[in-house]
Design a protein that fits this description.
The chain is mainly alpha-helical and 251 residues long. Strands 1-2 form a two-stranded antiparallel sheet. The radius of gyration is 22 Å and the shape is elongated.
């Protein structure tokens, strides 16, 4: 089989490793190119005709490669004459959805998922306090004293807070894992675990954690987040006792 990208002296050689499926090799090459060329979300990839000419493979192999990337949420494929493959934003929800497929195949439960969050969130809070990114630290101020709003506003504030702490950790892999686990739980539960009567208390806890992070008090930030997540886990077990033994399902 000809090397991917062969056929034109100006086209870089992209050989397929022995035993690789053609579609997987093409998919890997497209991801490498997106990264190497710094393609931002929304960037249009070359049209099918051009990619077929470049890779010198069958239409079926190319479309399978694009489908692999689409399923994993890395590209979108729009139909029509002005459509085609477009680079997507790397989103924690897509990563969580992919991970949940493995969780289901291996019989992993929601108890294990919640316990994983209980372990990871305090680590993220500590890392955020140790790093204290000045620009991101300023963003913590918007959670200070936040007590108003209905259910949707509360859920948005709570989700945004944990997302910001994860980003502030400075470790994108830990941040991706932490946020994706929260996304999987949010998709399954759909609403707040805490009753309305505790909404003000939970937002106040977020404020306390935020102040500890902003002050660089890593021990305090870690402890407060662990207490908060322990409370979260206990509330999940109280309100959804049957959920704990359920296998995480791919959605």
């Amino acid at each position: 089989m000809a090397a991917i990208g062969a056929g034109n002296a100006a086209t870089p050689q992209r050989p397929v490793r022995r035993g690789d499926k053609v579609s997987e090799a093409i998919a890997r090459d497209i991801v490498r190119r997106i990264g190497a060329e710094g393609m931002a979300p929304g960037t249009q990839l070359p049209p099918e005709a051009k990619m077929l000419e470049e890779y010198r493979v069958g239409r079926g192999s190319l479309r399978e490669a694009l489908r692999i990337l689409e399923v994993h949420g890395l590209i979108s494929i729009k139909p029509g004459p002005r459509g085609g493959p477009t680079v997507d934003q790397v989103h924690t929800r897509n990563f969580g959805r992919m991970a949940s497929l493995y969780f289901q195949m291996d019989g992993m439960t929601f108890r294990e998922l919640i316990e994983a969050r209980l372990l990871m969130e305090p680590m993220l809070a500590r890392a955020a306090a140790e790093r204290r990114d000045p620009q991101l630290t300023d963003e913590l101020a918007r959670f200070e004293g936040a007590t108003r709003g209905g259910e949707d506003e509360y859920l948005r504030l709570a989700g945004d807070f944990h997302q910001l702490v994860a980003v502030m950790s400075g470790n994108r892999i830990m941040s991706l894992f932490g946020q994706s686990l929260a996304d999987v739980l949010r998709d399954r539960l759909q609403d707040s675990l805490f009753p309305k009567s505790r909404r003000r208390e939970i937002l106040a806890v977020h404020s306390d954690i935020g102040r500890a992070i902003a002050a660089g008090e890593s021990d305090l930030a870690e402890r407060l987040m662990r207490e908060h997540m322990t409370d979260y886990a206990a509330q999940a077990k109280r309100r959804h006792p049957g959920l704990m033994q359920e296998v995480v399902d791919w959605r």
